[in-house]
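Action item from last week, closing it out:
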Amino acid sequence: MAAIAITRLELSSAELRQRAVRFGDPDVARRLLALALVLEGRSREDAARSCGMDRQTLRDWVHRYNAQGVAGLRDRKAPGAKPKLSAEQEAEVASWVRSGPDLAEDGVVRWRRCDLARKIERRFGVVLAERSVGGLLRRLGFRRLSVRPQHPQQDGEALEAHKKTLPLWLPAPSPTPPAASRWSSGGRTKPGSASKGP
């Protein structure tokens, strides 16, 4: 079995152990400890087993440490898929959301994700799932707002009159709280005092 060669020697095994103790990420701390064991001359199998990984994984971390130092021991975030819409197209979608839908053209009175997905497909030829449209809206700084439903033929004057007369319909609050009754609910029954039934 070939030995692992750590070519970056700026930190000793003791310094790697100290960094492992102070490091906030437990995965990186484990990798630092494995590297310290390798620097101390332990076999690849022993160092890997004592740190909860296999030999091949340890070899990969040694190569990353040699190339990038301690920063190479951190997990990298996957870059993700390339956006389907360009920056100009996203700006146009943002302008649609700000201006609201056109009832004659779009057939809706407020945007839903499915409506925006259809319009994006018609305009740009790009098919987006509703969930992807939601992510796009979040990235553009929009959040979902829901308004209280209002009938289009609602009479505003009648509504205001109702608000003014509503307190007359409600019973007046009692100035003193009701006296506690000895029959109040919520108490526990004493053991043996409940009737056992027929």
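Closing note: Residues 26-39 form the longest helix (14 residues).
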